[in-house]
Amino acid sequence: MAGVSTKEIKNRIRSMESTKQITKAMEMVAASKLRRAQAQVDSARPYFKILSSVINDIVKTNTDFDSPYLNAPKTGKSLFIAIAGDRGLAGGYNSNVLKMCLEEMSKSESAVLPIGKKALDFFKARKAEIVSDAYPVAEDVAVGDCFTIAKDVAKAFKAGVYSSVLIAYTNFVSVLSQTPDMKALLPLTPDDQGEEAKKSEILYEGGSVEVFEAIVPEYLGGILYGALCESRAAEQAARRTAMDSATSNAEDMIADLSLKFNRARQAAITQEITEIVAGA
User: Fold this and answer.
1) Cβ-based neighbour number of residue 206 at 10 Å
2) Hey, how many other C-beta atoms are within 10 angstroms of the C-beta on 130?
3) CA distance 230 to 250
């Protein structure tokens, strides 16, 4: 701060106070959105856990039929559904999940279906093969859109266009913890973790193949919507934490600048007194 006038320091303090007001307001907005998103996650999780458990039990105990959803096609690309945010200022929320997805995509021939502006811009900049850019605003993606995506993806997988389908999203652990995660959607494989599947025979009304063909797209849509809810809550939590940290940093800088301002003013007063005494 040597050679910096008190006026310049005062201008910097005003600038930091304005920044602090902005970050504080953004933190409050994120906290408000987080409450709604968290309630949405809490209400959706039980349904999707049961849905995953039912599909897992069917795949484990199936002896009646074979389905294209159970076997990976020998040809085709890997499709990655990447969910990110629409805006920045959320810490590492966007970069963490997108870098993880890009790293997995580099291992094989792949295509991506981005959801959210940050995901779309990220993969466009890297010349990745984008299946659709119809979902540039993650906040506007509704339940119906998730089931539309699921039906299109399931149809393409059955046709052999894709050899596997994976979804990259951010898992909402708590307000202070959000972890990027990737889940394989197709082909369906039994989950070895958790309780052993019941060995009771499953009866299918209308034919086992027909029932399975009908419920798999619904299952994919449900998992996609669950991942979207998790990502929305994680984004708001990450933004709230980032804005809280920015507000604290602004307060520290204001305190430091105020101290330097007082020192510079005292130095100026001392110099004036010294000049008056020397003149006398």
Assistant:
1) 8
2) 14
3) 30
- Per-residue pLDDT band at 44 (split at 50, 70, 90): confident
- Is there a contact between 168 and 97 (Cβ–Cβ < 8 Å)? yes
- Across the chain, mean pLDDT equals 84
Distance (Å, whole) CA 196 – CA 199: 9
Residue type, 223: I
| Residue 80, CA distances (Å) to 40, 104, 267 in order | 24, 9, 62
CA dihedral of 35, 174, 148, 84, whole degrees rounded to 10: 100
- The predicted-structure confidence for 126-155, as pLDDT tens digits, reads as follows 999 999 999 999 888 888 999 999 999 999
Provide the phi-psi class of 50: left if phi over 0, else alpha when psi is between -120 and 50, else beta: alpha
pLDDT digits (tens, 9 = 90+) for 57-77: 777 776 666 777 887 777 789
Three-state SS sequence of the chain? CCCCCHHHHHHHHHHHHHHHHHHHHHHHHHHHHHHHHHHHHHHHHHHHHHHHHHHHHHHHHCCCCCCHHHCCCCCCEEEEEEECCCCCCCCCHHHHHHHHHHHHHCCCCEEEEEECHHHHHHHHHCCCCECCCCCCCHHHCCHHHHHHHHHHHHHHHHCCCEEEEEEEEEEEEECCEEEEEEEEEECCCCCCCCCCCCCCCCCCCCCHHHHHHHHHHHHHHHHHHHHHHHHHHHHHHHHHHHHHHHHHHHHHHHHHHHHHHHHHHHHHHHHHHHHHHHHC
> What are the structure tokens assigned to 246, written together?
């920015």
| Structure tokens given for 122 | 């990220």
C-beta of residue 80 within 8 angstroms of C-beta of residue 50:
no
Contacts of residue 129, Cβ cutoff 8 Å, sequence gap at least 6: 77, 110, 111, 112
